[in-house]
Fold this sequence. Notes:
The complex is a heterodimer. By secondary structure, chain A is an all-beta fold. Chain A is globular and about 40 Å long. In chain A, a hairpin with a 7-residue loop joins β9 and β10. Chain A is built from no helices and eleven strands. Chain B is mainly beta. Chain B has strands at about 5, 10-15, 20-25, 30-40, 45-50, 55-60, 65-70, 75-80, 85-95, 100-105, 110-114. In chain B, strands 2, 4, 5, 9, 10 and 11 form a six-stranded mixed β-sheet that branches. In chain B, β4 and β5 form a beta hairpin. Chain B starts with a strand and ends with a strand. The chains are: A mainly beta, B mainly beta. The interface of A and B includes residues 43, 56, 97 and 108 of A.
Amino acid sequence: DAGVTQSPTHLIKTRGQQVTLRCSPKSGHDTVSWYQQALGQGPQFIFQYYEEEERQRGNFPDRFSGHQFPNYSSELNVNALLLGDSALYLCASSVQGTHGYTFGSGTRLTVV
Amino acid sequence: AQSVTQLGSHVSVSEGALVLLRCNYSSSVPPYLFWYVQYPNQGLQLLLKYTSAATLVKGINGFEAEFKKSETSFHLTKPSAHMSDAAEYFCAVSERSSASKIIFGSGTRLSIRP
Lengths: 112, 114
């Protein structure tokens, strides 16, 4: 049984560009949350999707947006990339109403 | 607002020694509490979770944590450290509502001396 799958594992972008990160949740999970983990810090909550809607949002600017598809997979989009957006982006899936989160291995984004 | 504070960004112990990683939480209502481990270049793995049953929670790899409401603490312990325990450990808190997010601490890096 596959866990949470994230793609790509690594990517390098230039300042001002746009990026899309993808997440496939664990089988049976219907909720996807995204986290940003800067080097040496704990993960910071970006937003959570359930039933194809953004249900909660952390303290991130509108440059960060997302989407959830009918098959529960999700995308994280970041526009107008800044150097400070360089981080490990983690996706976590769960079943709505529970607190059993499964994390993916993350996407390492480097902005140059 | 909920938050967690991990005391000590880096802890070093000898192999076979007791591991103690400290975590204090802030929450206006009884929360869910978690400990996660992160190995280099990997995601987060759940070690254990407190959900209001027994205050002493046993997790994987010989780790356990005790919920102390009076001290607002949820410290992680392991009686005997192994070299394979070297990793980053995160304490986290979540509200009990159905769609609650997890709030993480800043992490504690555990090093094991031979």
